[in-house]
Amino acid sequence: MVDSDRVSIRRPILDIQHLKKYFPVTSGVFLRRTGNVHAVDDVSFSVFKGETLGIVGESGCGKTTLGRCIMGLYPLTQGRILLDGKPLSAMTRKMRKAFSTRAQMIFQDPFESLNPRQTVRQILEEKFRIHGMSPQKTATQVELLLDQVGLDPGALTKYPHEFSGGQRQRIGIARAISMTPQIVICDEPVSALDVSVQSKILNLLLDLQSEMGLTFLFISHDLSVVRHMSDRIIVMYLGRIMELADAQNVYNHPGHPYTKALLEAVPVADPDHPPNRTPLKGEIPSAEHPPPGCRFASRCPGARPLCFEKMPTLSAHFNDPGHLVACHYPLSG
φ, ψ for residue 245 (rounded to 5)? Predict the structure, then answer.
């Protein structure tokens, strides 16, 4: 991780501007479009070179969709994505190919993301072949990759099903860093792994970040994991950003009631000091028909009439320009 106090003087490597991603809802024999699921709804932020920006929220908040939009796996409904100031939408096919060497993704389930019919050697050699590297140099690079992620050279002739979950994720990480990218989107990279293996994978990612100068967009629902990894954190709810701040401020001085509720929900293994929790009530609003006001108002214990009528803007809180909160009545901290 980088020193978060110095993030402000680093140049943004990635800019997300008013990104929206709606999925059509269809019905009937002719699959007529009857509405849209607002998976990501007007999201803007920047990612700075060398930092880890965590994105956290409940399932269905839009964090994975956001990551896939950045990688070009989903077309945008609206908005712009800029890499080093250049819009990705204006890229030619040749430029897109070059972009794939600069941004990569580590997927949640390593078993599903690896081709079961290919050996580890074939999986790792594929990108080098696409980019025209010679067979001799490719073989050398593949062996170096295995060493970087802590796998034995004997793994090259094996298939994904012959490995444990942690080993498969190491193969996925090796594939992601094979072209020495600048930014890596980590989509729940340890959620499918045993707790005993998670820390090893997280430490591997931190070591690779330090060695290669990587920038991480780290997506997770686990706040303890995000805290361990991140310099800054985005809290999402129902397709929108609720809070964005340095990790320390998010955990010590949450400004949004939803952030506070997430932190209170983290399990505490101390029977002598049970946590003081205020359980959230109410149902999560429909992403197909989001409310006109704050998305969290129907579950917020401090909601007032204005919260149901007007959507709050993401603005500075605690007199800190880097601590942004989308709330009409933010917490005092």
Answer: -165, 175
d(CA 140, CA 172): 18
Predicted confidence (pLDDT) per residue in 88-97, tens digit: 876 677 777 7
CATH of domain 4-102+181-325: 3.40.50.300
| Domain map (residue ranges) of the chain | 4-102+181-325
- Which tokens go with 166? 């942690």
**Start-to-end C-alpha separation, the chain:** 25
Q: How many residues does the chain have?
A: 333
pLDDT the model gives residue 180: 92
Q: How many CB atoms lie within 10 A of CB 262?
A: 22
Strand intervals (E) in 173-266: 183-187, 215-220, 232-237, 240-246
User: Mean of the pLDDT values across residues 244-262?
Assistant: 94
Q: What share of the chain is helix, strand, coil (3-state, %, to 5)?
A: 35, 25, 40
pLDDT of 217 higher than 60: yes
